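3.2 Worked example (two chains)
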Amino acid sequence: MQSSCQKIVDAIWFRNAILGVILLAGVVVGLQTYPSLRESHGDLLTGLDKAILGIFIIEIIIKMGAHGRLPWKYFSDPWNVFDFAIVAVCLIPSESGSFAAVLRLARVLRVLRLVTALPKLQILVGAVLRSIPSIGYVFLLAVLLFYIYGCMGTFLYSENDPLHFRNLQTSMLSLYRIVTFEAWTDILYINMYGSNHFGYDEQVYKTLQSVGITRDMIRSEASPYGAVLYFVSFTIAGAMILFNLFVGVMINGMEEAKREQEKFAGPETNETVTRKDFVKIEKNLTKLSEKIDALSNKKH
């Protein structure tokens, strides 16, 4: 029983079949988002959904059976725990309870099983998990940068451009818009030429009035050189340097994940080579024994 299950688990056709079922699960979940398809083909989609869940349960049983009398060893692999958790959540009836909508959304999680089916995706996920501590430091650096430039922007441009720099939180939100290059030149030109000459219209004044800022409180001031220095330096520091730091951290995490995977695969490779060599030695010893027997028979 154990050997049969192990052969099935190690078979390429089994892995490809599970991969196909995972892709089918993703398609079925996508089709269920269309109300018209749910009404016209609801029974078919429900049947496919149940069949897919049944296949996943059978897969777990086979993998547990591959461990023989120690089925709990199945949970020694974190990816198996991940698969089991997804299937377990999907077994909860989605039509009952106050969390029915949330439980229906759990079906989407089955698409995440692609991570366990494709080793390359496992490397990427492992790289992301390994990079979390370093990403935290990059995030801290970004927060410091946003805070410093947010304070500077509030001091420099709150009177000219209260729409984007009336307080610290609004300034930091505007800086996030700038770092994503979402029409950031409009904010630049407002502070280069003055709000009376660019960007501000009646709709903007009405919006500001709703937050307690009247038109006479706005003092239009042009800052052609200071605005260029402020915004261009922030885009270079925020969008380019921080982004490259993030990419560098991710690449380093991928290299570490690859090294760990190679280290994990190394003993298995060495064991395979040793077995092949052992088989060759055994064959050579058998041939040598036959030759010795033949020579001894000739002497007698």
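3.2.1 Second chain
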Amino acid sequence: MSKISVLGLGAMGSALAATLLRNGHSVTVWNRTPARAEPLAAAGARIAASPADAMADADLAILCVVDYAAARAVLEEAEGALAGRDLVNLTNGTPRDAQELADWVAAKGAAYLDGGIMAIPPMIGEAGALILYSGSTALFELHKPSLLALAEGRFLGEDPGRAALYDLALLSGMYGLFSGFLHAGALVTSSGAGMSDFLTLLLPWLEAMSRTLPDLAGKIDSGLHDRDVVSNLAMQTIALENIVRASREQDVAPDFINAMRRLAAMRVDQGHGGDDISGVIELIRREK
């Protein structure tokens, strides 16, 4: 089994280290607050004295801290031990963050793989957990058995920033869902109804609407937003305007929905009222 070091023992880092221990790996851990390492030491991990100590002891080093500034600070402390090492960075950040750190690590002579964890700590090592990876293909292939012990792994290519991009894109979809859920909840509870009862209507509706996504994705890829339109944007804009009006009548802030209403209305004003709602993407990605 590989010798693996885990640097950063927050809830996620601790879950990663514990899973590796359960899978029979020799695990070294380091955290700026040493007390967080004690439960893992009791389970068989070695506590490193410093980031350099942790890095020097590893076939593979996994870094999981709060942000890329913290990641860079940890790696700077281990700078002298980086040459020839394999590093997987599972810190959340932007594609630019990942690219800049990958360049810095490469200049120190280490191989780099960036990752985005699509799971909460209790899911690590269990079915349903997913980690997206991008960067060094060789590193991913070499350490794949160890990485797959943590979660299903999806390698997205050599661009170090791709995993961060997909991570944030998936979170965008999640937060879009949450914002719609919260707005729906505010409307329903404004009448004195309970959200739990309303959920029996909302969940099947969302499931039914999710089945339209493949068609919308095809329109986004082709740019043919006027193809086979069932509910055109002009009609949907009226619905969005009614949601905003009803929200104000119910003393509910329309902040979540107003952004979508504004973009839909703008697209209609540009002459695309007959298009599908997928056409709104042309407004938000126009800068590219």
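3.3 Remarks
The first helix runs from residue 11 to 22.
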